[in-house]
Structures are given as C-alpha cells and as structure tokens.
Amino acid sequence: MATKPLVVAHRGYWKTDGSAQNSIRAIAKADSVKCFGSEFDVWITADGVVVVNHDPSINGVVIETSDAEQVLAQTLANGEHVPTLEAYLQEAVKHPGLHLVCELKPHTSNYRETLAIDEILRLMKEYNLENRVDYITFSKNGFSKLIKKAPEGTAVYYLNGDYVPEQIRFMKGAGIDYSIGAMRNHPEWIRQCHDLGLKVNVWTVNKTEDMQWCIDNGVDFITTNEPEKLQHLLEDSK
Ligand code: MG
Fold first, then answer.
1. How many other β-carbons are positioned within 10 Å of the β-carbon of residue 136?
2. How many angstroms separate the alpha carbon of residue 138 from the centre of ligand 1?
3. Ligand 1 geometric centre to CA of 2 (Å)
4. Which residues have CB less than 5 Å away from ligand 1 (the ion)?
5. What's the gap in Å between 167 CA and the centre of ligand 1?
6. According to the model, what pLDDT value does residue 81 have?
7. Which residues, including other chains, have CB under 8 Å from residue 72's CB and lie 6 or more apart?
8. 198: buried, middle or exposed (CB in 10 Å: 19+, 13-18, 0-12)?
C-alpha cells in the first residue's frame, strides 16, 4: 500500500483515564498518543454560543433551545463542564501538531445551521486555526454552506453516505466520510474518490477486521474510538 491511513480520534481520545467524549481532556489525550486528528461535535445554543457535545441535549437540557449558561453548567463523565467551542480551540492551540475535525450537527433549521457556521468560522479565524481544521456534517444544507463560506481550500466532508463521489466533486466537497458499513457496501467508492481527487475517511472503525479492511483498501483517514489499537495495527502492517 502506497499510503497509510491517518488516525482520527472519534470525539477525541476518550477511552482512557480522566477523559470523556468531547471533553477538553480528550483533545490533549489524542495529541499525547500522536493521533493525526481529533474529531468533535458542535451545536449552537439559543443565545448563539457554539458548544461541544454529541447529543442534541445533555441531562435533559436541549442545547438549541437553551441559553449557554444552562448548557455550560452541565458536566461530562470526567467532571468537566460542557466546553464552549472557544475553550476547545484554546486547548487546540496548545497542540499544534494535531489536526481538528469539526462536526457540525444537523440543527433544527437551516437558519440556525448558518448561525452556527458563521460563529464557528469566526472562532477558527480568531484562533488562527483555519489551516488546521476540516469540517464534516450529515446535513446537506450544512455541507453546501460550509463549502461556500469557509476559506478557499478548506476541506469539507459529507457523512451521510447518500451522495456518490461524483456528486461530492460537483459540490466541491473534499471527499466522503462514510460509515464502515456504507463503505463495505460500496468499496468502489474509494477508487472513484481517488480518481476524482477526493479523499476518503471512514467512521467509526473499532474492530480489528474493519481497520484492516480500511488499510488494505487504501482509505485516507480512519476515525476510531480505539486510536492506539489502530496505531499498533498500522505499525504491524508496514
Ligand atoms: Mg461526530
């Protein structure tokens, strides 16, 4: 294999002591084991603060309809409070070797997704991280808006598995970031993407056999909850 996949920690490296999904600690942990990238999920609160969390609500507090004060009071499994995107980026700045993979979650309206995108892009610029971040999203609206609004050359990947590579190319996306199930059903998409100059990321690849399949088939990035396991497999497949 000419190239080896790069390792992206899914929601940061959280399956390790003192960490938690989408916690600030999880970025530091991803860097500590030398992941290529660290993925995280973002939402915008009712009062316009972008926060890092996977689910639309936390402890019953619905992020999109609650003010930041209430959302940020909630705690993660490791005792940290829900981080703002700004706090997350302040930590990312301390880890200059780490790439960021920012997932815009599908919001309740296109309007709110646009508010989120504008605020995300503003913060990335403020923290001088524009060259260190890729965007991913399940939202068709979010995908096309991110491509339109992010600085030229920013990589935006689509997650939902229902655009073929030619469609991604037509929309000026950087590539596909599809589930391992979708990719196993359509292994031809890997070659098609590469022929079109697109990259292929696969999520969330935790089983050894799936990791090996991705390595053998030449995908560009693997997103996993088990970054150290994947790194060991990559070392063994030299
Ligand atoms: Mg995610």
1. 26
2. 9
3. 28
4. 41, 103
5. 22
6. 98
7. 49, 51, 81, 82, 84
8. buried
